[in-house]
Predict the 3D structure of the following.
Amino acid sequence: MKNIVIQGKKVNYGLEPFVIAEAGVNHNGDFDLAIKLIDAAAETGADAVKFQTFRAEQVVTTAGKMADYQKKNIRQSGGQVGAEESQLEMLRKLELKEEWYSALISRAKEKGIIFISTPHGGKASVDLLESHNVPAFKFGSGDLTNLPLLEYAAKLGKPMIISSGMSDLEEVKEAVEAIKNTGNDQIALFHCTTDYPCAPEHVNLRAMQTLMKETGVLVGYSDHTVGPHAAVMAAALGARMIEKHFTLDRKMKGPDHIASMEPKEFKEMVAMLKQAPVIMGSGRKKLLEPERQYVTVARKSIVAARDIKAGEEFTSENLDIRRPGTGMLPKYLNQIIGKTSKSDIPAETLISEEMFTN
């Protein structure tokens, strides 16, 4: 498959996974916290740090309600949710200010991590990110069916990363086809379950493999589970991009902190993810170089179980199979039984073809 290239970083099957630290709205509307998230994400070894680009009014109407998980997570993190607080009011507190972008992008470049953002606010957000030459567009599951937006961004010719939560296979295929019809074939499709946090029984990683077979595009995984297990398993199953929510402290107030991963554990996860293709190997079953030293030590040979006299017939009683593995292979035992010893053979002697008559 053709490489996807994001700011010089190649992404494809056979290469190590491209890891995105999803800072999202975990900056809580605070510039200094956004900077700290970039610094911490870079320290973990992640390839990219991702935020969300929007003004609240671009995302939702005044009638939009907060999702139950948002209310629950805000309360669990010590925040207050008013009885009539809307999604609009919540999102206003979580905007990434337009005047911050240059500084945030510069900081990411300084720290050696790629800055990307989800154009959550539609075409205006795409335009804003394009004006800052952000190298790829990542769309959340909520925009999978927003084909006009996907087509608008795809025409800019940059990599398109799409999450597929809340969807079925036909909707996913429709989104992929819409992007391809613009002439853009730089597509990464993320398997995703839209739930925060996601229970293990709802991860359904086999669906990721279905996407690999059915869509013909690069496939990754956006992880909302607790801990690194699902992400590492996804990488082992072939996901070449992994995204996971990232925070400095899960106890911070806000809708996403509690379902995010803190820097220390994120760093440990990144190390595991980067090892995945090395551990998976080539797929060819063969004797590997480090194993050679163990062959004669650990394998076994046919040996004399006791002293055997010249002219004595080999039997299952006077032959045995033991280490070292420098003699005849055990698979020849049944062929030797019934043959006659040419000379006296001391106990524990490795049997060779010269010791018996054919």
